[in-house]
């Protein structure tokens, strides 16, 4: 089993993407990090690689509010292709929105593991990565 965690950030805010990459790198866990600036880029990557599950992320940190294709639109498309994806992908909806409507909507999508309000604290991020790596080993 490969212990490298493929981690994906989907967020239109370049500063947030940069700080998330730095935070993930600072955990010192073995991971490959990819980033997309909107949901359409991310879903197109997945569609282009449906035959290559090994390039898919193990975890996605997905923003809600993005141009072109927002997080909820991404999830609509992801749910359609999920049966063709040959690996488990853990998805966290990450947003600065405290709107109960957004939180409830995210909680109703079974493919979303959790809703996290930005910013993700470093300890929370480490715990998430540790749990994902532990799940892969068991």
UniProtKB/TrEMBL annotation:
Q: Which residues carry this modification: 4-aspartylphosphate?
A: 63
Q: Which InterPro entries match?
A: CheY-like_superfamily, Sig_transdc_resp-reg_receiver, TCS_response_regulator
Question: Which superkingdom does the taxonomy of this entry point to?
Answer: Bacteria
Give all residue intervals belonging to the Response regulatory domain.
6-133
Instruction: Look up and give the organism this protein is from.
Output: Maribacter spongiicola
Q: Which UniProt keywords apply?
A: Phosphoprotein
* One GO BP annotation of this record: phosphorelay signal transduction system
UniProt-listed Pfam families: Response_reg
Phosphoprotein among keywords: yes
Q: What is this protein called?
A: Response regulator receiver domain-containing protein
